[in-house]
Amino acid sequence: MSDGWLWVVNSSGLPYCIEQVDRPELKSDIEWRSCPISLDENVKVVSISCTGDSAFAVDSNGSIYIYLKPNVLVVRKLVEYYQNQRWYPFLGYSRPLPTDRSEYSSEDGVTVIPLLHSLPSEAWRWEENWAYHVSDTTDKEVGELRKLEAFAINHFGAGPTP
What we know:
Layout: E1 5-9, E2 15-19, E3 33-34, E4 45-50, E5 54-59, E6 64-68, E7 82-83, E8 86-88, E9 92-94, E10 104-105, H1 136-156
Antiparallel strand pairs: 1-2, 2-3, 4-5, 5-6, 7-10, 8-9
């Protein structure tokens, strides 16, 4: 197993790499692989500096790009939204009142979070699909809410709207 990569930049500004070996001149041209550093195909690399696990490239405009070997470092960021709704007899679920927490917030309800969350850069990807996570306390609270809904439906003829 190699302990690093050998990097080169061709005359067109495209970076290529190959696993570090004792004698790279014995490797065939087929074993060199293209390593695009950006989704933009117009990026022309001028210089590359590298370590065993990463490479830093500078393009012709002076922008810096970082390349990490796939299994070296995984950066994860957990994104949590808390949806705050209010259920009204006769109306069902609706937006909160102006004095309530915002519709989407942090767990404590202080930080307002916009529903559309953008990724920090085009290099970031979602690891898994969005999912609802319901805790035991939420289940208990939702159960109590369902009892109130049933009471309102039976006595007032109104139910939650989908």
